[in-house]
């Protein structure tokens, strides 16, 4: 019974540094272009786009980096690649922290 707790703690320690890398307030300021598809506060009104509010920060970081690199395909990947092209690593961290901090 002790081991699941240890595994959960280890997982938490791998996610927390990613949260520390991003600034949610800065991410909110950088999210203006995201609102058109992903909605205010990361909640969509058009079902073809995913909600971002409350999404896992590590997932968001990896997805945004994959769009930027062009290694993610399907759906709106080409559009996302255009939006992500000018984003720095800090921008990505900030956006991920912002959307992860929102209530789903």
UniProtKB/TrEMBL annotation:
Q: Name one Pfam family in it.
A: Cytochrom_C
Keyword set includes NAD: no
Q: Where is the Cytochrome c domain?
A: 22-103
Q: Which InterPro entries match?
A: Cyt_c-like_dom, Cyt_c-like_dom_sf, Cytochrome_c_Oxidase_Subunit
Q: Does the keyword Protein biosynthesis apply?
A: no
Signal sequence, start to end: 1-20
Keywords, in A-Z order: Electron transport, Heme, Iron, Metal-binding, Signal, Transport
Q: What GO MF terms are annotated?
A: electron transfer activity; heme binding; metal ion binding
PROSITE patterns given in the database record: CYTC
Show the SUPFAM superfamilies listed in the entry.
Cytochrome c
Q: What is this protein called?
A: Cytochrome c553
**Species of origin:** Enterobacillus tribolii
Taxonomic lineage per UniProt?
A: Bacteria, Pseudomonadati, Pseudomonadota, Gammaproteobacteria, Enterobacterales
